[in-house]
Specification:
Layout: H1 4-16, E1 20-25, H2 29-43, E2 49-52, H3 65-73, E3 76-82, H4 89-97, E4 101-105, E5 119-121, H5 137-151, H6 157-160, H7 163-172, H8 179-194, H9 198-207, H10 215-232, H11 236-243, H12 247-280, H13 283-286, E6 291-294, H14 303-313, E7 318-324, E8 327-333, H15 340-345, E9 353-356, E10 360-365, H16 370-384, E11 398-399, H17 407-414, E12 428-442, E13 446-452, E14 459-463, E15 479-490, E16 493-505
Parallel strand pairs: 1-2, 1-3, 3-4, 4-5, 6-7, 11-12, 14-16
Antiparallel strand pairs: 7-8, 8-10, 9-10, 12-13, 12-15, 13-14, 15-16
Helix pairs in contact: 1-5, 2-5, 2-7, 2-11, 5-7, 7-8, 7-10, 9-11, 9-12, 10-12, 11-12, 12-14
The chain binds manganese (II) ion (MN).
Amino acid sequence: MADMEKAVNRIEAAINSGEKVMIYGDYDVDGTTAVVVVYSFFKKHHPNIEYYIPDRYLEGYGISTQGIDYAAANGFALIIALDCGIKSVDKIAYANTLGVDFIICDHHTPGAQLPTAVAVLDPKRADCSYPFKELSGCGIGFKLVQAFAEKNGLPFEDVRCYFDLVAVSIACDIVPIVGENRVLAYFGLLKLNTDPCIGLKTLMGVAGKTINYTISDIVFLLGPRINAAGRIDDAKHAVELLIASTEDAAQIKGDLINIKNTERKGHDLQITDEALGMIAGDEVLINRKSTVVFNENWHKGVIGIVASRLTEKYYRPTVVLTRSNGHVAGSARSVLGYDLYEALCGCSDLLIQFGGHKYAAGLTMHPDNVEAFADRFEEVVSASITAEQLVQQIQIDAELRLSQVEPKFFRILNQFAPFGPENMSPVFLTKNVYVSGNAGLVGTNHIKMKVMQEDSAVFDCIAFGQGEQLEQIKKDVPLDICYTIEENIWRERRSIQLNIRGIRLQS
Ligand SMILES: [Mn+2]
């Protein structure tokens, strides 16, 4: 990896001369796990080390001036920045004037100019020949640790112990699970499921599932909890949990984070409810091809999650806005195939700032512009979106008969795991199945039922978030179902379960 030798040499120099080193990371899961890996490893070789996580709301994303000033005022000679920094050209030039060196470990795409750091580790650099380009931010930090260990003759066990944290970053940062990520995710899940670090073990405990984690379990159970610390309170709690060396210390942080997550969930549900009510109660809004909702009291930490939830109900480009620092700030989500960033470009004269990509973006505007923005966004979207893009589609990999879903089939299927972006769990279609027994509602809006075909066994099914479908599911009425196949473990009994993605009456 380009600059790796420079990075390792600079760290060795810092260790040899006893310089103060700061580990600086982003406040999301990728950033905090990266800080935990790099901090925990180097702490063993160099006591003069601290970590720093910028405040999500006061300092924002990336390298902050406050962080640099803190480092300079407290005698830090070197900052190792993780999961951020590749575009912080000005900030790093500023740090240089204060005598603070930087090593950047980032996986975001560089701009035209690289920052003037001692070393810039980023496989997406045009001049970097590292063969795998899609490592997570934590994955880059892990590579730095691995390189240091190799050069200094340390046993592989000293770096292998971080596989679980790397797997958590891969799952939560939604990087493709191919190539090296696939290897890291495989061994990371193995570690998570057999010998997790104390912090992750505690977090799995408070999340209510302690065994058989998959990538999607990490995404739904661990990720939101780690993120809740930074969204509702301070991301440092997540770092403190994950670096904990005793079970007692971890439990205190784990419980705290769980409370923050419950609080996050409360905001999330309440705001989603309010937003859905606003749309349903407004004849103009409900018939639009886009959603823009605004309430100045909504918690800024959850508007992105709410935007995603709204697209589940109204499948169209969506912007959720709230008041923030005297401005209006928003989070936007798109639907498959539609370029949201492009749509925001068409509204740029009404915005103070916006950034993001095809499917997710953030924006700020003057409070007076909210209404004009909602109208313009609708105008742009309805002129450019196709009718097809407004209907949610399920991509089917193969059609099966239920009799083909046998234990051996499932075993072979499992050899394709871990599943995730660019290696999704295959989706199957089976036509003409019958419900056996009663279908019922469980949880908030999920259907639990059993299905079969004449020549097949009976299969347990779960259909998340599809409660509306229950009334059309009747005995003796054939259905077509789309599903992924997973293992359900209940009281040590393992069985195959169909995770239903779509249900359609036979026509
Ligand atoms: Mn990242």
